[in-house]
Amino acid sequence: MTSRIPRHLMGRCLSAATVAGAAVVLLAASGASAHVSVDPGTAEPGGFTKEAFRVPNERDDASTVQVEVAFPTDHPLGHVSVQPVPGWKATVKKEKLDKPVKDGDHELTEAVSSIVWKGGSIRPGEFQEFPVSFGPLPTDTDELVFKALQTYSDGEVVRWIDVPQEGGGEPERPAPVLELKAAAQEAPVTGAAAAREPRQEQDAGATPVARTGSATDTLARVLGGGALALGLVALGRAALRRPAAREGTSVDQPGQEKVSV
């Protein structure tokens, strides 16, 4: 005998299956989007910047044990310093330039080619940031590409070296890209705001009025003390005018007859 599933239970089963399918899609999308990147990812041309290479561990059965970041050779950076990361040892590699590069009053004959971090471990479900300060940044390009190699504990090497192309989608293994953008300039003040500025400057340059609070307090205290002294004198005079009781006089007591003393 075949039993039929009630309609309300069938609806619940379909809803649960839909939610489970959506969860699988979200997990797959999040795994695909977790790649090596540079943060914050933007800097101003001509200056120095501090960036962090963020490395997530994409696998659930192995740990990341080595990270190597290659610095651009078409725009060599003359000054690079590494911030220590607990548990990791950084090795900065340099190479001679085919053509010296002008750096202010000096010429650079060598530049950093790559940095290798190893000795630590990024376990499944974790990520690690490797901060680096470098510059001066070039002014003749709008981006710098840093190709990276991620080595896992079982020997697998993931190559984050694909350069994103304009108009194309994100590659499977995109290389970290630092965008170079000039700082935004403040818009000139116009209209009512500009008219208020001279008034504010005038108010700021005005001489403050001297406070008279302390002088007023002193005067009030003097007047109060004088009034108190006059009051005491008046009480003393009233006491002197009051006649003193003489011996042999009778004293009236309430409810009693007069008693002669």
Describe this structure in words.
This protein is an alpha+beta fold and 261 residues long. It has a domain at 32-180: Uncharacterised protein YcnI-like PF07987, DUF1775 (Immunoglobulin-like). Helices cover 27% and strands 31% of the residues. It has helices spanning 7-33, 191-205, 213-241; strands spanning 37-39, 42-43, 49-56, 64-70, 79-82, 89-103, 106-122, 127-135, 143-145, 147-152, 157-160, 177-180. The strands form 3 sheets. It has a 5-stranded antiparallel beta sheet, with no helix packed on it. A 4-stranded antiparallel beta sheet has the order 1-3-8-5, with no helix packed on it. Strands 2-12-9 form a 3-stranded mixed beta sheet, with no helix packed on it. A hairpin with a 4-residue loop joins strand 10 (147-152) and strand 11. The radius of gyration is 44 Å and the shape is elongated.
Name a few traits of the molecule.
261 residues, alpha+beta, Immunoglobulin-like, 5-stranded antiparallel beta sheet, 4-stranded antiparallel beta sheet, 3 helices, 12 strands, 27% helix, disordered C terminus
Order of adjacent strands in the largest pleated sheet: 6-7-4-10-11
For the record, the CATH class of the domain at 32-180 is Mainly Beta
Order of helices and strands: HEEEEEEEEEEEEHH
Structural class computed from helices and strand pairing? alpha+beta
Q: What do the pLDDT scores average to?
A: 75
Detail the topology: elements first, then pairings:
Layout: H1 7-33, E1 37-39, E2 42-43, E3 49-56, E4 64-70, E5 79-82, E6 89-103, E7 106-122, E8 127-135, E9 143-145, E10 147-152, E11 157-160, E12 177-180, H2 191-205, H3 213-241
Parallel strand pairs: 2-12
Antiparallel strand pairs: 1-3, 3-8, 4-7, 4-10, 5-8, 6-7, 9-12, 10-11
